[in-house]
Amino acid sequence: MRLKNVRGASDIIEASKYVIENPSNYKGKFKKLFNNDNPLHLEIGMGKGQFITEMAKAFPNINFIGIEMYDSVIVRAVQKQDELELPNLKLIKVDATEIEDIFDHEIDTLYLNFSDPWPKNRHEHRRLTSDRFLKRYDSIFKDKKVIIQKTDNRNLFEFSLKSFTDYGYKIEELSLDLHKDDYFNVETEYEERFSGMGFPIYMVKVIK
Asked: What is the spatial distance between Cα 101 and Cα 63, in angstroms, rounded to a whole number?
């Protein structure tokens, strides 16, 4: 869900000490940025930041980075973090296609929450679970590759399951209705809205 015309969004983003400017300067060196050796978890397309913020609060011994490309969306996450000042959370304004320029074998877990389904077949390469993106992820993972996906779009979920397994990932956890199953779960803003309307939430955790 994209917000529009947030007054002063770019100024708020630029002024925040929690937004990483020139993130490629930290490629392979994000441990130094956090000043510890804790695991590093990444969310691509964090929206307004509810998920990544709550995860950082719940797991202080894990470092979290959330990326989002739109000023009008990431500004809400920036405002949350400027208020909470969580030491284990940083934010980056960037397009997902640039992640190979930012991370180098240092991510432990990747979250893909309610990504754009790009429903037209000719756009499937834009999906964050397409083989084109899975290849990009190869260079950002530290060791074992762990991806956790949530979506309300069944077509995207089915596409993702095939894409993951074709690429050599193994399914470790799977839910066709996450809110009815017994899994630990931190909701996104989008998830709260659509699960409240009775839509099932699909979840898969894959490893390689």
From this structure: 19
Q: What is the mean pLDDT of each run of 10 residues along the chain (208 residues)?
A: 62 90 94 95 95 97 96 90 95 95 97 95 95 97 97 97 98 96 93 88 98
Give strand pairing partners of 93: 68
Within a domain: 14:
no
The structure tokens 């996104």 sit at 188
Domain that holds residue 85: 34-207
Q: Is residue 6, in this structure, part of any structural domain at all?
A: no
CATH number of the domain at 180, please: 3.40.50.150
Catalytic-residue membership of 116: yes
Catalytic hit among 11, 95, 101, 116? 116
Query: What pLDDT shows up at residue 117?
Result: 95
Domain count of the fold of the chain: 1
Q: What is the DSSP letter of 94?
A: -
In a domain, 12, yes or no: no
Long-range CB contact pairs, 185-189, < 8 A, 24+: 186/51, 186/54, 186/55, 186/58, 187/50, 187/51, 188/47, 188/50, 188/51, 188/113, 188/114, 188/150, 189/1, 189/47, 189/48, 189/50
The 3-state DSSP composition of the chain as helix, strand, coil percent (nearest 5) reads: 40, 20, 40
Structure-token match 């949350």, residue found: 80
What the block records as the tokens of 109 is 């877990």
Q: Is there a domain that residue 55 lies in?
A: yes
CB 133 within 8 A of CB 127: yes
